Amino acid sequence: MTHAVLCGDFAHYQDPDEEWTVDGFRTEEAAAEYARRFVRDQVEHLRAAYPDPAALRQAFMMFGEYAMAPGFTLAPWLDHCIATPATRRADTDYQALDPNR
Question: DSSP class of residue 92?
Answer without folding.
Answer: H
